[in-house]
Amino acid sequence: MIEERTFTPSEAAVVSGVSLSTIHKAIDEGPLGSAREREAGKRILTETDVVYLAASSIFDPKLTQLTDRAKTRLRKAISSSRRKAGRIPFLEGLDLDLRPVVAKVRSKTALLDRAKKMVVVNPRVRGGEPVIRGTRIGVYEVAAMVQDATKEEREEILAGYPTLKREQLELALIFAAAHPRRGRPPRHPWHRPVAARA
């Protein structure tokens, strides 16, 4: 049996296009309960789980409400036909074509892999903060600048950081979403109130 690739919930959210809260709900209350038990203290999802999340997001909740039974049935159908990735019988008279869903998941997974390869963590560079390979530019800083930037603002970012490439802006967003910062942001001297500096 081929071992399936695994994802953290944050990575699964990026790859499937489903919100993190929906993923945690599917683990807590839905057909992905086994994700709680795969690794002690951590929630781990398989590629099949991610395909299920992406497939279930096709259904518009205003038009179709999937029951718990239907969700479990969809997850089982995807699991049993995973190697073929074609049309699967889902409900009576309804088949789902998994090919575009699997293609989307694989495409997003490839982008996630490129984002991970772009980032370097070295304790001697910026105290071990993740930076973009070949630079000292923090990946979270780039993601924060790009998050709501217009096309013109992105061009300004590239002009201000000539070592950055256009693709790295998008990959920084993907990395930051898949690996959110933990804990409080670092405290720098310039963040203290003026009275405290005197």
Summarize the structure.
With 198 residues, the chain is mainly alpha-helical. The protein is built from 9 helices and 6 strands.
Topology:
Layout: E1 6-7, H1 9-16, H2 20-28, E2 45-46, H3 47-56, H4 68-80, E3 87-91, E4 94-97, H5 99-118, E5 119-120, E6 131-132, H6 139-146, H7 151-160, H8 166-178, H9 194-197
Antiparallel strand pairs: 1-2, 3-4, 5-6
Helix pairs in contact: 1-3, 1-5, 3-4, 5-8, 6-8
Task: Describe what this molecule looks like in 3D.
The protein contains 9 helices and 6 strands. The chain has 198 residues and is mainly α. The strands form 3 sheets. It has a two-stranded antiparallel sheet. Strand 3 and strand 4 form a beta hairpin. The longest helix is centred in the middle third of the chain and has 20 residues, at 99-118. 25% of the residues are buried.
Give a count of the beta strands, DSSP E runs of length 2 or more. 6
H/E element sequence: EHHEHHEEHEEHHHH
Q: Catalogue the unreliable spans.
A: none
* Sheet with the most strands: spatial strand order: 1-2
What is the straight-line distance between the termini? 66 Å
How many whole angstroms does the radius of gyration measure? Answer: 20 Å
- Total number of helical segments? 9
State the shape: elongated
Give the overall average pLDDT.
85
Largest sheet: 2 strands, antiparallel
Helix content: 40-55%
- Structural class based on helices, strands and sheet pairing: mainly alpha
The fraction of residues assigned to DSSP E strands is 5-15%
